UniProtKB/TrEMBL annotation:
Keywords annotated in UniProt: Repeat, RNA-binding
Record-given protein name: RRM domain-containing protein
Domain RRM: residue ranges: 29-106, 132-173
CDD domains the UniProt entry points to: RRM3_I_PABPs
Organism listed in the record: Aegilops tauschii subsp. strangulata
Cleaved signal peptide residues: none
Keyword Glycosyltransferase: no
Stored InterPro entries: Nucleotide-bd_a/b_plait_sf, RBD_domain_sf, RRM_dom
Tree of life domain: Eukaryota
Keyword Nucleotidyltransferase annotated: no
Amino acid sequence: MLMNDKKVYVGPFVRKQERDNSPGNVKFNNVYVKNLAETTTEDDLKEIFGKFGAITSVVVMRDGDGRSKCFGFVNFESPDEAALAVQDLNGKKFSDKEWYVGRAQKKSEREMELKEKFEKNLQEAADKYQNTNLYLKNLDDTVDDEKLRELFAEFGTITSCKVCLNSQLLIYT
C-alpha cells in the first residue's frame, strides 16, 4: 500500500535481540580501526581507505594533549564499500603494526558479544570435562565414599563415586 506516495511494509514485530544480525547480514557504514601507529593521521587513513570508495568522514582519536590514542573511525557513503575495506584491510600491517579493521560497534553491542563469547568458552570447557573418570591411588584408609564426594563436589556434579578398599580406587564420572 502507498502512504504519502511511499510504499509501506507491514509485518510482525521482531525484537532487536531476535533479529537476524549475523555478520554477513549486518549493513554498516562506520568502520573502526585500531592499532594505528602514533604518527598515523586522518590524511593517511583517507588515502588508504579512499581506494574502497567515497568517504564521508575520518577521525583519529586523540587525548587531551593531542597525542594519538592509536585508533580511529572511517565512515563510508556505501555499506558495500565499508564491508570491502574491512575484508581487505583487517589484519594487514602498516608501520610494523597489524591493524584491526571492523564494523564500529556501540559499547552495549561489544559487551554483549564478549559476554556471549565468554559463556560459549565456559560451556565448551564444561563439556570437555563432562563424563570424565578420575582414578585415585594411595588413599588414606580413613577416606570413604562420602569423604571423597565432599572433597570433589566443588568441581562439578559427581554421578558416581566408589572407594575400593583393596586397590583404593575412585571412579569419578
